Fold these 2 entries.
Entry 1:
Amino acid sequence: MMRHGSRLILVTSVGLLLMAAHASVAQAPPAAATTQPNFVVIVTDDQRWDTIGRCFPTIDGDDMNAGADSCTPNIQADLAANGMTFLKGEVAQSLCCPSRASILTGQYSTTHGVTNNEGSNFDDSSTVATWLDDAGYRTGLFGKYLNGYGSGSLTGYIPPGWDAFHTFHGYRNSDNPYTNYPWINWDSGGGAAVITRYNDINSTTEAACVAGNLYSTDLVCQQAMTFIAADMTQPFFAYVAPAAPHSPNTAAGRHSGMFNAVAPAVYPDYNLVPSPNPPSYLPTSALSSKTLSRLPAAFRAALRTMLAVDDLVGAIHDQLEADGRLANTVWVFISDNGYASGEHRWTSKQCEYWICHRVPFVVVCPATVCQGATPGTIDTEHYALNIDIAPTLAELAGATPTAVVEGQSLVPLLTDPSPVWRTEWFIHENEPKLDGVVAIAGDGAWYKYVSFTTTGEKELFNLTNDPYELANLAGNASAAAIQTDLAARLAAFLS
């Protein structure tokens, strides 16, 4: 027996098993109205911001009215067309584990303390799950929790606040998160947690979101749908976190060969570094033609994995529409970080530039929940952050956060055409080690100031005039007052 948080569990190792097939989700009669909205929060892994818009023949991330040309047609038709898309959706740290902890707490990574990809030190005693659980919600997590979950002291650990917990467990580098992966299944009142290994090779079906299909995105979808259907009267919070489109980008068999003709967008910062004085961690020479030639194929492979996520969105949407709860359900769609594909000569996450921090970010708040919300809105002005999700859900649910919250509820942006909104926010990275502030300066423009802890290097960009961050103004006499101002703001935040 092990006691962790508020849960007493028995850990059972089952070895290589197939998933026990759940009963098919039957169509239920319309749900009775509740005073609290339901929540579906979908968190993808390493998804670029520009992969939910126009997709044929060339990516155009700014075209969010993509219709049939969308990379993800269900996300466009079911979410973007009915909600608000934030083209300045960003994360405060561009790394999986810190970002996910920020989504759950509403805190910067420097506050919750998870600043690398090891989540064993995460204090999850106060998260949006515990707040909503206390407010009368059924809460369920399906998919990825935190990196490192299930290893060492976290073997079999069930975090507080969750009534259902179905997630990758003890994942190793030799595993494939799509087709061969360790998993834990636990439901309150359902007995001991069961740890097993799923292998997609033994699946009997390739249909989306169907019991018996062990392709992990479809498993996540099916388990989330079962949870949602289990109770028609109590409000629910479903946190749905598939592995896609993280490497190794293994697509579902039904999507092989898709997107072969798609070309990624080429932005002004492609294969270039800021000037003058680019930071020393960036390559000093342009990426080779051999490296550049590999990037489009990796980009397309990631797109293919997102098609199963798109199937997931469509399946859950149709289920809620059929059972009468769609009009009372709030959706959030976000990635845990962005991903560079040659921009600033970078081919990963963990950089300070827009391409690493910018993520797809869509929120659907029906008019029955958010009076004044306008479907199909594209917000090009306001920075919406991953730390804003937890306080948004808390406000809409009438829940009380039990720890400090540094994000802001997005409700004013969803309901007010001229909201008062943030004028500064902060970024942090561990590799390279840096801290920064994004803020409106005295001249009315948005700037980004970055200080590298180890090397002492500085960067300053006018984001209004130079959104691709190519002209480094740090040390420039014409921007000295602005640099002093933002450096003082950053120092105040870090003190």
Note: The domain at 2-18+34-422 is CATH 3.40.720.10 (Alkaline Phosphatase, subunit A).
Entry 2:
Amino acid sequence: MIRRLPIVVAVVLVLGAAAACGTTSGGSSAATGSAPGSTGAATTTVPSGPLTGATAPPTLLGGSGPLAKTRVYAGLSRNHVDGPIRYRQTPPVGGDHNPVWQTCGYYSSPVNTPNGVHSLEHGAVWITYRPGLPAPQQAVLRAIVTDHPYVLITPWADGSLPSPVVLSAWGVQLDAPSATSPAVAAFVREFERGPQTPEQGVPCAGGVGSPDVQSRAPAGN
């Protein structure tokens, strides 16, 4: 049995992100990776823009089962930023983001990172994978979105992901060795619109982008 996120952890995540969404002027959005010294590997993209993301080391969810090694982050800001943003984690687990969210679904090309982070705020599970992931593995991921309107699946822009597949929701993240790992289904079941979601009831459809595959399930409100 997969245990639910402990209520204490959920409260910490939500309170840590409880600052009201603000707006900072800037240029056009651009996807960026981790800044130097981040907890993730360095990317090939030259960092630019303000730095955001969790500053404290994560704790582990613990327990038993496929979610035991899930990393839990707190203290994530939620400001709206027009322009490039740098993230401390690769891929991000939250932080400041673009004013428009990425429409959930499966994409065969990388998306703008700050838009994807906004989707996390709405309750999305963002599954990122290395560009070289075998096609059969990508097909397994693509099939997930059919019944999950709050799942965003994209390749990462370069090879900096810490594992072939990374599962992220607001404030939580887990590495997976493959698309068929039990962690994938367990993470989606636990954290899609889970208790860690800062903005419950906000859709993940109708944002920016046109997914290659979109969920047939009701989007919800």
Note: The radius of gyration is 16 Å.
